Each structure stands twice: as structure tokens, then as C-alpha cells.
Amino acid sequence: MRKPLNSPFNPGSDSVPEIWAGRTAQLSDWRDVVRPRRLAGLPERGRTILGEAGLGKSALVRRIAKEASAAGDWVTPQLRVPSGADPLKLLAAAMLALAEAAGLASAREQRIRAALDRVQAVAVSGISLTIRQADGPEPYAALTELLVEIGRAAIGRGNLVLIHIDEIQNIQDAAVLSQLLIALGDALAHEVEVEAPGGVLVSRTLPIAVYLTGLPEFLEMAGARSGATFARRFQTVTLVAIDDDELTAALQPFVIEGWAVPDDAGGMTRVRMEPGAVEAIAELCCGEPFLFQLAGERAWYADIDDVITRPQVLAGWETARSEAASHVERILQRLPAKELDFVEAMAALPVSDRTLTQIAKRMGSDKASDLGPTSQRLDTARGIVERGRPYTFRHRAVEAYLTSDWPDVPKG
After folding, report:
1. What is the pLDDT of residues 22-67, one digit of tens each?
2. What is the DSSP string of 96-165?
3. Fold designation for 24-238
4. CATH of domain 242-319
5. pTM
6. CB-count burial class (<10 Å; 0-12, 13-18, 19+) for 380
């Protein structure tokens, strides 16, 4: 009945999970704002989706990309940037593939051939070799030129070009990051003249959408190195935990009609969940998409019958405890010392005493104002705390780890 081969839960693979929870605001933004505006030729900024590990950044944009592909749009693969890699080289290779799909490779226009040749050099040699060995425009300018040509072709087809660059925080070279952001930003802002009904020429932007995903520190990197240009051309969202109501809603099909799986007789049967099992999964995962998938997977593996019970969820979680703890520990270990001290001091205080003044005292400082920038980064950039009266935790798994026995299985 329940087997690893038919589990609908899939933690930590960046794939689009079958059991999808939350992120309705970001999905609505794509469906109702980004795609229709870019298709209509209206200006719309790129999107930067940031957040701590496990919040589902890559899976979110992969779902958007899946929807775009189903609509006939031209979509790059997930361009994951390894540490030390040349992102312009990765983008150049992806743009050449899109140019092939657009039919530009067979075009005879000299400007298109020149753009393709120049971007081919970037794709083969990378930014450093290209700058040293070839005359002509900078690599970012060549990429922009090809993006424009692909965008023109997309106008003719009536579809969109979607570009997704992941692990954007791994671009440590300021010059390379600047070139990448300028190339993408210039393509987003570029306008062309098209003929409207009646023969009137009108200006429109290209049907190109860009999504960047990565860890929260990218925001400071981009702001420091690109300043107002980045803020003007990209809208940034920092993901936080998913509400329990959204997690419960995602599992409701299990409760109402059950999840269809093959049986052992060549037909189909359904696996159901008791309401107590749904409640247990929501409690244990603390709003984290990765932990939600992990808790669901281990509950699925806990038995083979057709009903998932609360005891099975708890039994499955026992096998996931160390992985859940390591997940939160990695988040805390990445924090700079002062930010880590802040969240630990905040967690040690009673909920009603979590004010900036009391946190400062707990850290051995008499000046709460000295912690203003630290609290701001933890709030707006990292999404770990929320400033207020009192301060609260936005990252519920961090709070649970620091203030309770979680991820131990609750008794009773």
C-alpha cells in the first residue's frame, strides 16, 4: 500500500512537491501581475526570492517555471550558481539554448549573428577569457543584446521568456555580479517599437521575466554593489514560515477523499489521514516547507496500511529528529556572532519581556540603540525575528529549537 515509490512527499530536492502548501501570494503575483504585465508590454520588475534554507525558494520558482512551460513560454532550466562559478557563462549557455528554440540560430541578420557569436564566446570561455581575448562589447552587453533579440522573437510568438538563477548569493565577485544584474536589468527595462492595430507604432517592454533566488545575505551584497539600480529593477521578497492553516489545507485531500495510489492488484486505492495526524505534521514542521515534506515522508514510511494516524506521524518523526535539528543548527551557524547572540538572548527571555531594551541587557549592553541594525537585519533581511512590542520570532523552527524540547517528539 504505502511504499517509498508512491510517496507524494519529497523533502529537500528542489523539485515541485505533489503536496503543495502555501506561497499563494507569490504564485498570485506571478499569475496576476508579472506574467500578464510583461506579456502586455508593461514595465514590471524582476523578482528576487530570498530566505533561509528550507523555506522552499527554489521549489516555488520551479513551480512557477512549470506553469510557464505549460503555457508555452520559453523557460530556462534552474541556473544554479556553484560557489566560484561564472554566472555569465551559465546564463550565456542558457540564452543560446533559448535562441535555438526561438529560431534565431538560423537568422541571417548581421546583428543577430554577431550577438550569437559573442555570447557563444562567453558560454565557452567565461567572462575573464572573453574580456582578454576578444574585441567588442563587454560580455554583459552581448548578453543583453541577445536577450533583446530573444524577447523580440517572443513578442512574435505571443509568449514569455522566464529566466531563473538560483543560489545567487554564491556570486562573490563584485564585478561579475554587477555585470549580471545590469544585463538582466537592461533587458527588463528595454523598450521596442511595435505596430499596434491601425498601423500606429507604440513602445513596449519585452516579455521577459527574471527570478533570482538565494539566501538572505544576497540583499546586502546586491545593495552594496549595485545600489539603487538593483532596487529599481528587482522587487525582493523574503520568505517566512507558512501558516498552520495553509499546511492543514494542503493535507485536507488526505482527510476528505484520500490520496490515490496503486494497490497490489493492478488497481487503485486511497491513503487517508486522521485529523490528528494532520495536526501533528503541522505542529512538528513549524511552518517550514522542508520540514513539512520531511514529516509527511516519515509518516508515510511509518507503516503500510491505508490510514496515517497521529502515532504513525510521531513514530516517523523519531527517525527525522536528527535531520530536523541539523537543519536548524545550520541556519544558526550561518549567523554572524552578534546576530546569533541576539536570537539566543531573545529566546532566553519570557515572551512578554522580549523588547530591544531587555534583549540588550541580556547581551550585556546598556544601549539598546546599538542593536538597531542587528535587529533590522534579522527582521527585514533574514526573516528570523519580527520587531515590535514585544519582539517575536518569524522563524518558528528557530524559536522552537531555542525555547523548547523540539525536535523531540511531544509526550502524550
Report:
1. 999 999 999 999 999 999 999 999 999 999 999 999 999 999 999 9
2. HHHHHHHTGGG---HHHHHHHHHHHHHHHHHHHHHHHH--SS-HHHHHHHHHHHHHHHHHHHT--EEEEE
3. Rossmann fold (3.40.50)
4. 1.10.8
5. 0.89
6. middle
